[in-house]
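Posting this for the archive.
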Amino acid sequence: MWVARRFISLIARRGQYGLFYQPQGSLPKLEFRHLNCTCCWRSRIPVAGFETLNDTLSPSTTPCDDDKSLDAYYTSAQRDVILQLLNNAAESELASVKLLRGRKSVNIVEYRTRNGPFKNLESVINVPLLKHKSAVIVFNSILNPPEKKEKRKVKIQLAKFIRPEVERTWLEDANSIVSIVCGVNKIAWAHVDRGMNVLEWKHEDCHNFLKGTYMASDISSVVSHLPSADFFVVEKTSISLQNTALYPVMAHMRTVEAMLFALLEPCYTQPDITAPPKVLNMMRTAVGRHFGLMVGESRTSGAQAVQRMMTESVTQKIPRVTFPHNLLVKYRNLFQMGGRRRGEDLCDAMLQAVAFLRAAR
């Protein structure tokens, strides 16, 4: 109540402290101007002493005269372009136009389904949620669509995910590599040369895995069957530490990985610091991102990617990877989706080999 009485007394007072007191020569004279109604752009509201929209909105682009329709502000060719899109575009295409995302694009489709195609621009304002102001913005957006910026595909720098770090010249000089993937009960490998020719592609069962003490003989029998190569690339798996149920699997992977490093790395009587390491690690997630197999932090099956490579080896003159005929016949039905996924380790070994050789280029 006190605030109300105080406000009334300020209005009623006269003198130099009155609310509407204006000293002579201190302020410019008030001029009547007009604000355009933001809902229909037709009615004009007189105001005094404020900056108006008249300085920023030109009559040529913002219809506001009482005697002109929206059609009068566009040429015949422009009207045809606007009506062509509004009458034929699907809801998804309409949603790409400025201000039409969401309910407005749905309303346009429903309106033209119920009433037929728009015959003129003025009829567009009959669509719910579309008034003169928003209609003008929509029309101008159709005539002058924003430039679409192409999304640049992020290229994975695979060489950064190879451990230990080696000089690039060593990678470039390699003639062939053996990619090794350790599974729960088997080890798979792919022997591929620099020309992307598959020389060998096998897997071997290891029945003693996850059944007690690991003996060197369990791994050495597999190592004895591996072909010679410039580098042996062992897959580095990443298992979430939050999932305690996978601790035994993680311990298994790390144990087999350590034994492979010990058995494959040559022993020198006098260490040669200038020689590159023979055994390397490559991150499983990096290979998955390279082939687009990652869903969040999880990697999906690479069977389809390997199937495409095998098909390209037969159908294309210059395939990404060349498979010998005997391996195509042997493994053509192994990677069928929905099966027992018996060939996942083979798929992973092949994808890692391809990714490594591309990183070495």
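The longest helix spans residues 247-264. Confidence is low (pLDDT under 50) at residues 14-21, 30-62.
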